[in-house]
Amino acid sequence: MSTTTSDRLDHEFRLVIQNQEVDLLVDEQLQTEAGGVNLPGFRRGKVPLRVLRHRFGGEVRKQVLERVIGEKAQEACEQRGITPAFSPTLLPAEEPVENGMAVTMRVVALPALEPIDFASFELERMVVEVTDEAVDDAIAEIAASQSRYEPIGEERPVEKGDTVLVYCRVSRDGEPVAELDDQETRVTLTEERGHPDWIEALVGAGVDETRTFMHTIMPGTQDGEPANEVEVTATVRAIEAEVPVTVDDEFAQLLGCEDLEQLRGLIRTRQAHGHGERCQALFSVGLMDKLAEYASFPVPDFMIDAEYTAIRDRMRREADSGPPGGADDDGTGAGDDDGTDQALEAQAEAGSGQEAEETAAEEQDPEIRAIAERRVKLGLLMREVGRQNNISVEEHELEPAVRAWASRFGPERRDRMHELAMQSPRLVETIASEVYESKLVTFISELATITETTVTLEELERREMEVDDAAVEE
Fold it and tell me: Are residues 123 and 91 in the same domain?
């Protein structure tokens, strides 16, 4: 298992920099660069040092000071046998220094681990075969999504089971919900489609009639947190009937394929890819569970607080971004786009230290905190494993990863998502972490003993639910 040289991974040192030391280095750099300086009234390379100090001394001093502090920080870590997990945090020291300056360096060290014998790992990787029935079901779903809707020919009130086109105004506490308000959406009034609020409100309404009701986007939690509710004012535009699409070669051509057989092949390939990603995700979970056995070291509270804040904020954004029609809303999707953009912009603009301190003062959810602690420990452990085995994310690997992330949003939005990602250092760091984890999983997989097990899609879904349930219980 793991061993550490200290009970603490967070350290604080005082670094002292003397003015004389910095002045000498500034002069050396100015004299070295003097040959390339061309100033009016002086021959090239013959500019006096006092003039160079006056013109360039301030900027050069900043560069030298940054270099000296970095060298002293590295020297302090080496003297104490510390390998920083991240770049140290530097703050002005409280006590002044005569003829110099002092900074307080705070650093989180990587845990000191014995090399892990990955060849001893025994892991399972599931494989799901794509069946003809699954391909047919997928094509049927696509056909259903391509169906047209037309108003029914009779005049009658809305009944349970109807599909209705409604215009919605959505507000919370009297304020419009920007990503949901002022939209037309199509809702099928069945319990199976997740619309009990809509059924109760709209059944019996006539065309052009307006009903106002409370809709629950996210139910309350067991610890007493209130449900996330919005007020919906819905005007019935039409009661509609579905006009189904015939699945044939002409249908396949509308989707860009030569014929139905080519469409079936495309669907089969996509399903195999999707099943493979889900199986790989479960494989990674199993590998991380195995790695977690080696993460027995203590971690700083402020790191757990910061991760807790990130998890909590993401949960709140997800709770706020649900569609007004529930889980099966058939609207235009514009609200979801706006919600995604806003979430990314919030992540790009979010601070770090202050939020963590505020969270530490709150009464924290123990389940979320346990998840945060596990993530912090695994993150530090994986960094150390990567250091031991020369695994890192190179600059040339990051740009394709960001573009791949942005491509998840479709061709009409990927440029916007790529722009948002590049403007958010935190998001880029998250994507880099995903790349790093993937490289680490690949590295360990090549050493471990892996057993492939063929399972049905139902078995895969059951295993995914078991993992989710285990995470909640933990």
Answer: no
